[in-house]
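INFO  loader      accepted 1 record
INFO  loader      residues=200
INFO  predictor   begin
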Amino acid sequence: MIKIIQTVLLTLSLALILSCKEQGNVEKKTESAEQQTTPSYQELGLNYALSAKAVLGKNLIGAIKTKGAEHALGFCSAKAIPLTDSVALALNVQIKRVSDKPRNPENKANKSQLKFIMAGKQILAQGKKIKPQLQEHDGKMIGYYPIVTNTMCLQCHGLPNDQITQATQKKLDDLYPLDMAKGYAENELRGIWVIEMDKK
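INFO  predictor   done
INFO  writer      dumping tokens
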């Protein structure tokens, strides 16, 4: 009788242990699945930056196609920051573009942003791709995402009297007397998107 009781107790104990192990495995799998489906702050920031870029790009290309680069400068001067702000408001984040060579003084990079830009320029010079960077500061997650020049950019950011026409240069001089954002070639770091997200 005692042996039977011991056998039953042993069987129940083993069943309980196995049940706990299986439950632990299920919990681990569930946590792992949640981690895979939840985007990281870096991915979220990239999505926000791409959303802002898409809105600005669509409007800028439309302005260039309508009346050329000279007309597009008027759009950039009046609409670029308000459009960026409206995207940020819709997404409930802070979005801005900054540069070490700003056209608009409001887009001047701060010390930490400049550090990322300088490092990014060295990486591009070596023929490598710049990776986004994420920092935590005062309960915020701040992402830096590179803005690299292409052929279209050079119409307003290339060499004066070469990619930049005289008419466009005159408009630049009128709108941005402190302009530093010229002289770029293709595939150079023009600046960065800075995406500031609340940490959840």
